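Would you mind giving me a polypeptide sequence along with per-residue structure tokens?
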Amino acid sequence: MNGYFPSIYASPVPTQYRMTLRVGEHSARHIRRIARMHLANWELQHLTDTVELALTELIANVIRHVPDSRCTVLLLKQQKGVRAEVTDTYGELLRTPAKLDPEAEGGRGLFLLTALADTWGVTPTAAGGKTVWFECTDHPRVRGSSSP
């Protein structure tokens, strides 16, 4: 009799997801769906709205600022939450404006990331690009205590 026999060494639920793609106008929707599925599998559904919105902002930055629109998205289940990373080949770091112009169409993404995530940052890559990452944990945080 043929059947499927799962490895006794493999985790029943993967604890990370990685995807490399060229992003476009519909990419954020698909990435949100993938994040939602993994957060449900990891029993972290209460973080779904925050993670989806923060990922959407990072993907929008890739679409707007990275010339070839290529990036790698990584979701990592952590002991007490989730970490998301978006890595691209564009080494220039976006500056956070000191003051928001209420009439401007952009410039709010990193402020939003600060408000949503428990912590976030930017790490240069060896290939000359950057990884923008954020972490959301199970415990509530005091707003304004995130880094950078």
Summary: The first strand starts at residue 16 and ends at 22. The beta strands are 16-22, 70-78, 81-88, 119-124, 130-137. The helical segments are 27-41, 48-65, 109-116.
